[in-house]
Amino acid sequence: MNKSAFEHLVRAYSGELYRFAYWQCRDRGVAEDLVQETFARAWNARAQLRDAAMVKPWLYRILRNEHARLHEKKSLPIDDTELSELPISDGVDLERDYAVREQLAMLSPQYREPLLMQTLGGFSCAEIAETMGIGQDAVMQRLTRARLALRRLWLGEALGTSKEKTS
Amino acid sequence: MNCLEFRRAALADPHHPGHEALAHEASCPTCAHFYRELRMQEEALYEAMNVPVPDGLADRVLLRQARGWRERFFPRFATPALAASLVLAALLGLVWQFQSDALTPEMLAAGILAHVEEEPKALLAEQRVPLARLVTAVKRSGGELGMPPGETSYVNHCPLPGGGTGEHLVFNTPHGKLTLILMPDKRIAHAVRLDRDGLTVSLMPAGAGSLALISDNREKIGEAENWARENLRWQGGRT
To answer: What is the pTM assigned to this prediction?
Structure first.
């Protein structure tokens, strides 16, 4: 990978990686640091990238590792982050966005992470499984549970009390 | 495929549930309704995940990388180039000083106003920012905070006119929104006030850099300046 290809990579993926990083740590400054570090490591390890088509999962994997390293070092709170710290977007319906973000933040990381990779990154279940180092069935189960939990919140139902009618 | 299997498939991957699932959805009104709702939920979820990306992020990544490239190249010539590097660093320091001084306080104030106008979401935001985050933002700029002028509704790390970054803060005060921009690397020769488009900006020296107070209440900007003098402390003195 030469400098020009690397620049294309940065321009193509920095925004998406920033959003993924933001939802990992829920801090804008830390998210930007994570993106910076991800690309620095990607450049240093560029020789390890054998297949150019795998560049996106490769970058996500680096970012996940960086986040884990940071978490190890600084013991960043994952589950106890204040919901009030969530920023609001410049979307049209700010209140709705805010509510959904609160709901998303309520998911535990093991459920939120595959959901982010699928919704933001457009990864398939197989790709998520490979990046996270777990089985595809486990990924599908986590995605299903995450969406069910969000759906219950979305519909204003109490967690654990909803029963869907099925044939 | 029955309804339960359809829902499992749809919840695991709403955009690609598979042919069988889509065939079931076409023949089952209940599942079709469920699927419509699920896709609406997905749309809202995507919008919510889509947090704003800071301006100039890719440029900053590339800038840091470019520095890294230079650092990796130079060590091979470290010994003979050391003296030259020191001279170059001194020259760059002088250039930087010149450039920093070249951005007059009036130009910086106009740039700050443009930044505030270009970022309307900052004034609309109601983040209910915890005090700890506010204190951290001020500390990152090398300052210490006494009492805030009101509840903090927005905090962001922003690119600044002429390069560099600073802290963009917005407070709800009894006189309306007050924006504070901390610019630890923007040294100014003197304080300046500027009125434009219904906004007043007051640019003041602060520590080794400067700060800007922006309000749509021209009459109360003096009060905001007093607050800054009394409540923001920098190495080497107050604002």
So the answer is: 0.51
